Amino acid sequence: MSYNDRLIRASFKQQVDRVPVWYMRQAGRYDPEYRKIKEKYSLLEICKQPELAAEVTLMPVRKLGVDAAILYSDIMNPVASLGIDFDIVKNIGPVIDNPIRSAADVDRLRPIDVEGDLSHILETIRILDKELDVPLITFAGAPFTIASYLIEGRPSKGYIRTKTMMYSEPEVWHKLMQKLGDMVITYVRAHIANGGKAFQLFDSWVGALSPKDFRTYVLPTITRIFTELSDLNVPKIYFPGVASGELLPALHDLQANVIGLDWRVSISEGRKRLGGKFAVQGNLDPYLLTAPMELIKEQAKLIIDEGIKEPGYIFNLGHGLFPEASLDKLRELTAYIHEYSAEALKTGVTIAND
What we know:
Elements: H1 6-11, H2 32-40, H3 43-47, H4 50-64, E1 69-70, E2 86-89, E3 93-96, H5 103-107, H6 114-117, H7 119-131, E4 136-141, H8 143-152, H9 160-168, H10 170-193, E5 198-202, H11 211-217, H12 219-228, E6 236-239, E7 258-260, H13 267-273, E8 279-284, H14 293-307, E9 313-317, H15 327-347
């Protein structure tokens, strides 16, 4: 079996014959086959069945022709091992039964036991390692994003309880960041040991912070995570989520390989703010997928043209796929990205859109 390593090569800024592409939330509700599975099982129930979770992970690789699989899981899964009770509620998201509101709540959090509590996730990874001919990206939720759910008790727009703890009880906040950082490090190491070929740290909501607050309250833990995982010889991706363009200059010293960009900052500007150190990933607005295919290709071409100006570019969306996205459009977009970028890289110049 030939192995498609374009994502790994691009992550390390090595030469590729075409731009690799994968999509955040590529195993999801835009796929009618997946929707049928969700009629029988919840997200968490699928995750606890390794064969089924592996099959759902494989579906978009087969149907779309993407260059990587992303593990079917949820960023909240590891917090169950810490002693947090939660559910993923339809049309809401994670809802926490016992939110973190005090120093005592933080002290009660247990160390993660991946082998004991999350063995089903490791089994899913082992199955996929045997089945896939593209890299498997595993992932974890970053400490700020996880903390925002744990403290607020559910998704929030303003993060008032989260910021109140940060500002009013910084010692409690930093202890929570320490414990969640430990969780991420242990969890990711187990993923890679069992067959993960890359990992992404999702910090979906950290763009809610100012650059100063990000540097003070979050960046030390993010830096520690990537430093302690620096011995792993796999691509390490940090996605600082939506509206995070102002945070990019703070990432210069991160021991990551790839930084994910949302659609609010261009690929060229993102590279500039990052000091040219990292490969970059992104950054089509996912809701552009509602547009006519001609416009989708036009915008994708502009992004690819910027991306291939320097080594180290992975095509993705600026955030996750949404349920109304079209499977057919995604399949056509993936083929276009491959075909257009292959020709542009071969000739060394960008070519006109059809």
